User: What shape does this take?
Amino acid sequence: MFNYPKGATPIDEDEKEGLLILHISTREELNEWEQRNITDAYSWSDRTRRKDYLSECFIRKLHEEIFGKVWAWAGDYRRSDKNIGVDWAQIPIHFRQLLDDLKYWIDHETYPPDEIATRFHHRLVYIHLFPNGNGRHARIMTDVLLEKVLDQEQFTWGSGNFIEEGDVGAKYIQALRSADA
Assistant: This one.
């Protein structure tokens, strides 16, 4: 059904059953529908005035806001292993460790704000919480961290299209792989 760009995580057949818009038949159509939701999710996060931006609840809700009009499983942890990420059964443990580390880094000013954001983003993608949309979710969540918690400007993320195959997406994937090492 979908052709995946290099580095993208394929969606399992059972996860495809969670597609809420049944007339979508190509990756391009899926990207278009998901992009509409991404714009809405940025608006939602801008309107949201909370104290719990770094909570499991908020982070999962953000994924739901981004993908909930397209996927029934939006905001739910994945239940299968992928070409990236920790064992799916270990997601809650690794995610809790990340949030604890993040709180420590912020409270103790362990790193400069941009490094805190970079480390958070890398680990969030590495854990790979959800069946799909982890990179997009992690970039938006990192923007929330920078702006709402660390009082910093959002990253530019190379100011390009990550979904299409191309230079920006390839550099992003390479940077993540370098950070893995």
